[in-house]
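Reviewer has doubts. Consider these tokens.
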Amino acid sequence: MNGFFRRVWTSFVLAFLVGFAISDGSVLFGIMVGEIAMMIYAATDVTASTLRTIALAPFKK
């Protein structure tokens, strides 16, 4: 597993635990919250790394 998938999986697990806790033990709600967080995190992570690559391109020799 590379770093990206590990970070996305970690964000899912953390969001699942939060959703599970605030819904009084509803596994389905926890999974739903986890999936939403995972999608948001994956999208923002890809966008951030792409923008970073574009921004640093002129400085790389």
About this structure: The mean pLDDT is 79.
